[in-house]
């Protein structure tokens, strides 16, 4: 469940960075579109 404060932040922010670690141990970070759906954070993809 998202807090009121977090909902406020997500209501004004449309981009976030999704970061993972590659098999060689190096970081990989990409910008992603975000929104909320049914009280959860949704990552918007083109698919």
Properties at a glance:
single chain, 47 residues, alpha+beta, three-stranded antiparallel β-sheet
Please explain how this structure is put together.
It is built from one helix and three strands; from the N terminus they run H-E-E-E. It has one helix at residues 4-12; strands spanning 15-21, 27-37, 40-44. Helices cover 19% and strands 49% of the residues. It has one domain. The longest helix has 9 residues, at 4-12. The chain starts with a helix and ends with a strand. A hairpin with a 2-residue loop joins strand 2 and strand 3 (40-44). It is an alpha+beta fold and 47 residues long.
How many helices? Answer: 1
Report the structural category. alpha+beta
Poorly predicted regions = none
The N- to C-terminal Cα distance equals: 25 Å
Overall shape: it is elongated
Strands, helices and their partners?
Elements lengths: L3 H9 L2 E7 L5 E11 L2 E5 L3
Antiparallel strand pairs: 1-2, 2-3
Summary of the model, kept short:
By secondary structure, the protein is an alpha+beta fold. The chain has one domain (4-44).
């Amino acid at each position: 469940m998202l807090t009121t404060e977090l909902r406020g932040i997500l209501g004004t922010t449309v981009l976030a960075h999704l970061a993972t670690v590659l098999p060689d141990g190096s970081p990989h970070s990409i910008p992603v579109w975000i929104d909320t759906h049914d009280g959860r954070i949704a990552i918007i993809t083109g698919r």
